[in-house]
Amino acid sequence: MARDTTDNRPIERVEELAADLAMGCKPREKWRIGTEHEKFPFYVDGNRPVPYEGERGIKAVLEGMQRILGWDAINDDGKIIGLVEPTGQGAISLEPGGQFELSGAPLETLHQTCREGNAHLAQLREIAEPLGIRFLGLGGSPKWSLAETPRMPKSRYRIMTAYMPKVGTQGLDMMYRTCTIQVNLDFETEADMRRKMQVAQRLQPLSTALFANSPFTEGRLNGLQSWRGNIWRDTDNQRAGLLPFVFSERFGFADYVEWALDVPMYFILRDGRYHDCTHITFRQFMEGALKDEVTDGLPTIGDWSNHLSTLFPDVRLKRFLEMRGADGGPWRRICALPAFWVGLLYDQAALDAAHDLTADWSFEEVDAMRNAVPKEGLATRFRNHDLREIAREVLAISRKGLSARRRLNPEGYDEASFLSPLDEIVARGTTSAEELANAFNTRWDGSIEPVFLEQAY
Predict the structure, then answer these.
(1) Quick check: 251 and 194 in contact, CB under 8 A?
(2) Are strands 267-270 and 273-276 parallel, antiparallel or unpaired?
(3) Side-chain-side CA neighbours of residue 274 (13 Å)
(4) Which residue, of 43, 126, 301, 378, has the fewest CB within 10 Å?
(5) What pLDDT sits at residue 4?
(6) How far is CA 145 from CA 140, 177, 292, in A?
(7) 223: left (phi > 0), else alpha (psi -120 to 50), else beta?
(8) In this structure, which long-range contacts are made by residues 162-170, counting pairs with CB atoms below 8 Å and at least 24 apart in sequence?
């Protein structure tokens, strides 16, 4: 998230929070696709991490991007930490370890999404290459220890860094040493949100397997296909993972609100200053827990929006749905991830087929699959099948959904072509992580350095 919200409208009743989520309901013709992708910056000289400060640091990259884009700077305590397009059509932000993120504009087609990604990477190369910087498309930092990883000067990250070790064993690794590709998608009604969220939550482990791309840690094989997926198993389980209540036939906005109210907060923002609120839940905030601690310590809609942005379930609900299961990867997969989910969720026949396929998958079964996928990938067993077999069926549904949308490029091709990288993975039966691990053991001769050539933007 590039910029924390400052919406000072007061919250008077819990019911207002469900109504706020419901404001995301949109007619089908207004549905859009918002793609986010993160990548690790590194110096070509020595494959070293890039700090924030310095003539060739992250700050210099952001300032250079601002010059060529003309976007507004986002500042935190006087330091530039991101950029936002003046009308809200896209943003650039920094993750805690300097991971560079584009939060794309809400677009109508995947063709536009791919053009956006191409333009962003070209602009980034224009600024970064003269500084000796390139970017790595992986789900996990392959070489640097946590101590070697830079820290970005963003106030909310200081609060999270202090809090994470109290609630899990891998939260700092999540913050500083992982990258993802995400897509944000719309819903029409509460019932439509329910069906999409249920399908997406059940299929999120499959997405993790298809996009598994983090087999290295600190220069060695870590024994996993998605180290990033494994990290999410013990980051902060109060606010992350699968949500059992989503499996209910009666799940709705109010259920998500009730869960979110009882998750500890990270902060509130007042007059540009972040106040640590990790000692209370949002429900306690609603009950007045901060009114004597902080000036203007009563909850606002902005506080609620910021709180929702600090929840990390596999599928996150705001005024749209966020698909959060995939590792970061090379350019082609930046387009493949939104294609996978748009095909499944934006065509009614495809959504119905995906629902019929997964409707009887229980929370316990999906949770077991989620726990197995980081190590086993597409070989993970589910009932009498492995995920490779299920992937074939799900990709066929997604392809039909994309073809039915009839969004054609100037050459007359529809959006289904963006699934090709996933078709290749399923056809060969090995994930990107397995291919990288094989390269490490054979032609790379046990060295991590070639990954910075082969997976770089």
Answers:
(1) yes
(2) antiparallel
(3) 20
(4) 126
(5) 76
(6) 11, 9, 41
(7) left
(8) 162/276, 162/278, 163/266, 163/278, 164/235, 164/236, 166/278, 167/235, 167/236, 167/237, 167/238, 168/234, 168/235, 168/236, 168/237, 169/234, 170/230, 170/231, 170/232, 170/233, 170/234, 170/235
Q: Which residues of the chain have pLDDT under 70?
A: 1-3, 6
Two tokens, residue 107: 């677009």
The helix (H) or strand (E) run that includes residue 373 is helix 363-376
- pLDDT score at 166: 97
**Letter for the amino acid at 345?**
L
The reported pLDDT for the residue numbered 113 is: 96
**Helix ranges, 46-186 (H):** 58-69, 110-128, 155-167, 171-177
Tokens of 410: 């100037």
Residue 60: name the closest of 113, 107, 137, 127 by CA. 127
Phi, psi of 410 (to 5 degrees): -60, -25
* Calpha distance 268→259 (Å, rounded): 19
Give the span between the Cα atoms of 251 and 363, in whole angstroms. 14
Closest CA to 136 of 98, 80, 92, 90: 98
